[in-house]
Amino acid sequence: MFKKMKAWAKNLKRQIFILYYACKDHRVPWYAKVFTACIVAYAFSPIDLIPDFIPVLGYLDDVILLPLGIMLALKMVPKHVLSDCEIKAEELMRNGKPKNWIGGSIILLIWVVITVWAVTKIYPLFS
């Protein structure tokens, strides 16, 4: 069972890298790029929609929502683009993924802005 879960996680990681390259490809329609970019950003983000410390529900996004989003995004991308992106993703996984500190900083900044906005909107309701 552990080997099966490990293979599933590796395949999920591969699909995220495929989507990463797909959202950069000019042959992908704009609506698919937007959706795909959101899925990839969420997958790479260290912050989850549902925090992992919440029993059972905490892993719901990692086990159900993220794979569902990946599946939908893969269906939006044209097949010929997917085949090109699969080759690039396999190469990336063999060579090790690059670190993108600028992208990570932007994602962190977006989450900070969302958190500050949410706190300023919700806090007055309880005062």
Throw out a few tags for this protein.
127 residues, mainly alpha, 2 domains, membrane, transmembrane helix
Task: Give the SSE map.
Elements: H1 2-22, H2 30-44, H3 60-76, H4 79-95, H5 101-126
Helix-and-strand structural type: mainly alpha
Rough outline: globular
Largest sheet: none
Radius of gyration: 17 Å
Q: What is the CA–CA distance across the termini?
A: 50 Å
What is the total number of structural domains? 2
**Number of helices, where a helix is a run of at least 4 consecutive DSSP H or I residues:** 5
Instruction: Say how many strands there are.
Output: 0
What's the overall average pLDDT, rounded?
Answer: 83
**What are the segments in which pLDDT stays under 50 over at least 5 consecutive residues?**
none
β-strand percent reads: under 5%
Give the helix proportion (percent range): over 70%
